[in-house]
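Support request, please re-run this one:
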Amino acid sequence: MAVRKFENEPVIIDVNHLTKDYGYHRGVFDVSIKVHKGECYGYLGPNGAGKSTTIRHIMGFSKPQKGSTKIFGIDTFGNTDKILGKVGYLPGEPSIPAGLNGWGFLKMMQEMRGEENTERLAYLLDLFKLDPSPLVKEMSLGEKRKLAVVAAFMNDPDVLILDEPTSGLDPVMQQIFIKFIVNEKNRGKTILLSSHIFSEVEATCDMISIIKDGIHVSTFNAEEVKNITTKVYVLRMSDKENYEKYLKKCPFEIVSKNDLRFSVMVKFQQDQYKEFTESVQGIKIDTFLEKPFTLQDYFMSFYKEEKTFGGLGGVVGNSKK
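Re-run finished. Output below.
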């Protein structure tokens, strides 16, 4: 089990063996998530993996077939009104009435939550450079997304549940949003962030779960990726002769190779570095470059192979190819 920085804090979001089977291998199956107070939990997976299904259940919009979803110890299904004032929810595809302007939508959301924080609202409108005056139907996709972001955060909720939060935002706004989330985390907010954007998850999250085909395939501390002992190097040989010579003698896993550029990417363990340097002796090399192992590398290992382990250990194998 991964070590958690916030494990001594109360569990705020608790998903316990959630199952919702829509048939034909669609849905989520035996999913469990615990998000502690002050923690940012990343929920990583491609579109269709089950992230939004899980979040809809956490928000109480759907009833589990098996298991439970709780916020503040309260079963969310049938009790949305009890948690709404303390939870900021940003759906993956916000539904905003086209007949309203931005101000009208924000006022409607304030009335639903029974709370108004004008100072916070002004801060968010300035931060995200949003003018709420136009009708929603006249707004661009990016403006609609910013409007949904402002609506989710404007009452300064204790818990943030964010489904693909930067979808539709331009790169500048994406960076502003990421810095904003880091600041919210530093203020003690509890955050569940669903995404398929690796940089977003790496920059903000303390714990990460990877979901594939509705099943959790790994849960780990984000720091584990940074401290992983796998080494990956890209080597470009001076010519075809040296390239083929190295392919024959390489004792490590060859992750990829390019016959036209005479280049290979090899993977090995940190304690095998001496063996690696010995393997390149006598080989004429033009480029010798270390490629840092990233969250994306780890994530992609699940979509290239049938991995079912629960931690980072299985990604550091050194089989030959």
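Residues 171-186 form the longest helix (16 residues). The chain has eleven helices and 14 strands.
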